[in-house]
Amino acid sequence: MRNTAKITTAVLATGALTLGLSACGSDKDAASDTSGPLVVAASPVPHAEILTYVKDHLAQKAGLDLEVKEVTDYVTPNTSTEDGSVDANFFQTTPYLDDFNKKRGTHIVSVVDVHLEPLGLYSHKVDKAADLKSGATVAVPNDTVNEGRALQLLAANGLIKLKDGVGTTATPADITENPKKLKFKELEAATTPRSLDDVDAAVVNGNYAIEADLKPAKDALVLESAKDNPNNNLLAVKEGNEDDPRVKKLAKLLTSPEVKKFIEDTYDGAVLPSF
């Protein structure tokens, strides 16, 4: 059994209360408090699994007390890191982080890149992307960056064409050519695997694909290339906490040869080390 704990409303409320009680002190004092375990919010798969491997096999020898809290959405980890409910998070890519900070006014920064989860197009109805019929419905994540990645994946494989330069900010409005007249259903990223019985195909993030027992290297109709990919998953903290010695220890362990081997042995190409 994985030695992890799910974040609950009570935990978040406790964190908020603690933060409120310490407000009379200086922010500098709060940021410099490195006592106690390093609490990291993470998506269950593969992030929490990787952290649990570190906790069980590497952390004690390195003198790191690590606590892993599983979170199943893409908002809570950053808001909890911002308000101090957790010390760090491990679930997101640089483009997603940049977009989140811009829209939410948060101050989360990257510490180290750890791995890539290739985005894939999956279907329960066709075996090849070329077999999608005219007017087929494709589910895509509805958050800005992952929707852009999904559309870029479809464009890279000739299903659509996009305006030049739109990058990961692309939306269906930026499609310039759509020969199959594909229709797009925008869903929360976590729900895209469950939509596969209701749509003709869905673009699914790597972590959610793994949770749904999809094997990206085998089951994806098309898969995001790892070459020159900016969407590596990273360890992040609130700005000012980068030099926390606990964070530095975790960053070193997450990019160790042992973790690289764990990722390669465990995920069979569905997760790729970034170091």
TrEMBL record:
Report membrane topology: Lipid-anchor
Keywords per UniProt: Lipoprotein, Membrane, Palmitate, Signal
Q: List, alphabetically, the CDD domains matched.
A: PBP2_lipoprotein_Tp32
Cite the Pfam families for this sequence: Lipoprotein_9
This protein's source sits in the domain of life called: Bacteria
Answer whether the UniProt record assigns the keyword Nucleotide-binding to this protein: no
What span is annotated as the signal peptide, if there is one?
A: 1-23
**Cross-referenced Gene3D superfamilies, in alphabetical order?**
Periplasmic binding protein-like II (3.40.190.10)
Q: Where in the cell is it found?
A: Membrane
InterPro entries listed in its UniProt record:
Lipoprotein_NlpA
| Membership in a protein family | Belongs to the nlpA lipoprotein family.
Q: Under what name is this protein listed?
A: Lipoprotein
